[in-house]
Structures are given as C-alpha cells and as structure tokens.
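Let us work through a complete example step by step.
Step 1: write down the sequence.
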Amino acid sequence: DVYQATLERSLGVGRPPPRSSLSTVATQLEALRAARAQRYFSPRARVRVLVVLTDGESLPVARARLASALLRPPAIRPLFVHVWQPGERVVTQGAPELGYRSDPRSRALLQSLAAATRGLVLGEDDSDAIVSAVRAHLGDGPTIALPEAPRRYELAPYLLLVAAAPVALALRRRER
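Step 2: predict the structure and record it as tokens.
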C-alpha cells in the first residue's frame, strides 16, 4: 500500500522541467550519488536500500562514479522501479508534446546501472516483487521507531518584519 501510494503521488511530468526547451529528458539518475551526503539513512544503518521510481530516460550517467558512491561501506543497494510503458506520451494542457517519444532503451540503461551498483530493476506493476526484494535485502531484525524530525521554520518573513520596523520609523521621522 505504501509503495502504491508513493507511486501515485510521485508522478509529475515536467517536474523538474528539462534544462532546456530542446531537451526531452529531465531525469538525472547520476544525482543518486547524493543519497549518502543528503543523510537519507541513519549513520547507524548497516543495511541500506534506495528505492528509485523512474522512467529510466536519463541524461548520461557515469556508472563508475555512481557505483563508487553507492558501494562505499555501508553500501546502498538501489532498487530501480521502472515506471514506463511503450508508446507513452507527455501531455501538457491537453496536447501531446511533439518532441517526446518513450525510449525503449530505458530498461537497458537501468539494467546497466543495476549491474554496476549491485542493484535490481523491477517493473512498476510488480509491487509484490518490489516488497519482497526490499525485505530480502534488509533481512529480519528489530524495527526502530525514529523520532519525528524537527520542523523547519521559515524565518525570512519574521526577519523582514523586524528589519522593516526601524526603516518605517526612520521614514516617518523624515516626513516630519
């Protein structure tokens, strides 16, 4: 259920938009290198799985660099969920994007990345296999409920208000 809910909420064509209007590919799978630096995992986690929902239609990927980043201990095992069908179209405001064609080579790209990173590629419709693969890699053991992450508060509006008060006061005195 969690996988299905995530899949339904994660699809957003054109978010992020391609780097240029001439590009029909926006995905940058090489960005997965940042998974370790972005602290997606607890430092204590010895077994790590990264589930990647993607159409596989990516800008070129330096497989060796990605593998180096993900395989450094403790290794992060990627599970690529190929969200793709032949003949798919991108539709914007009811009209198909003329420059887009679904890329039948996308599965091969994901297979090559999975081979380089000791990962796995599964199809979007095989949620049982996806759950089984994640469970098999994680194994058995205790689960730990993590405390809720501290909330982040936007301080800029308050700082602007505090900074605006003296300016407004100085302008008012100037008018007199």
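Step 3: interpret the result. The beta strands are 48-54, 76-82, 91-92, 95-96, 120-123.
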